[in-house]
């Protein structure tokens, strides 16, 4: 797995990961953490968005201007920097004439929460949408298979209920923490992943409801992951993390640790 710009080859199997945003909730320089995934098997590409905070839609539109390209959206939890970009995304899809069904996945209540957020931002627009929306609840021990992928979830430790997600196909898997510190359940979910994308708000300070750099590295090593992408780092801490990357790389051993910038791409 490497950083690279990829022109998809639809003749085989590939998972491409694009870091649209990597920032925390209130970072003035970096957009909210949001991950775009292109899954390609044969001639059937699938595009997924992991979280859609209030600064995420412009990053998505730059990357994916085609209105019917997106197949599904995963919402890890109901904090604004992870879901409050949904209204803008949906209304622009309506404005540009989307017709393809859109699947929105998340924890119990994802249906009503999406409707309420859209009604808060643009009252009356849910009824105006001219494309179908399908809601799928993904809960611990309630796996969902869709798009040729398996979605599995586990509770993370956060101030608001957050579900970590594992996406798997053909023995390759991506784990995305959303926000929060790892739990025994989420660590079991992450076991053996090719890529762990983990919230790491501070370097090593234990902040309730948040992960850390050192904790995420330890977790990824214990899970025998291949790669660890550290995201959602506190805005005043991020520079310190980059300056100390040699130390963290040494700590990680054979684990490949990175602090991606917006727009970075990886392939599985």
What does this 3D model show about the protein?
The chain contains 8 helices and 14 strands. 43% of the residues are buried. Helix 3 (86-95) crosses helix 4. Helix 1 (56-63) links the parallel strand 3 and strand 4. It is globular, with a radius of gyration of 17 Å. 24% of the residues lie in helices and 29% in strands. Strands 6-5-4-3-2-1-14 form a 7-stranded mixed beta sheet. A 7-stranded mixed beta sheet has the order 7-8-9-10-11-12-13. The protein has one domain (13-267): Metallo-beta-lactamase, Chain A. The chain has helices spanning 56-63, 80-83, 86-95, 110-121, 184-190, 213-222, 238-243, 245-252; strands spanning 13-21, 34-41, 44-50, 72-75, 102-106, 133-137, 144-146, 149-156, 162-169, 172-176, 195-199, 227-231, 256-258, 265-267. It is of the alpha/beta class and 268 residues long.
CATH architecture: 4-Layer Sandwich
What separation lies between the terminal Cα atoms?
5 Å
Low-confidence stretches are 1-11
* Biggest beta sheet attributes: 7 strands, mixed
Report the principal-axis shape: globular
Structural class comes to: alpha/beta
Question: What is the level 1 CATH name?
Answer: Alpha Beta
How much of the sequence is in beta strands? 25-35%
Give the tally of β-strands: 14
What is the CATH superfamily?
Answer: Ribonuclease Z/Hydroxyacylglutathione hydrolase-like
The rounded Rg comes to 17 Å
One letter per element, helices H and strands E, the order comes to EEEHEHHEHEEEEEHEHEHHEE
In round numbers, the mean pLDDT is: 94
Number of domains: 1
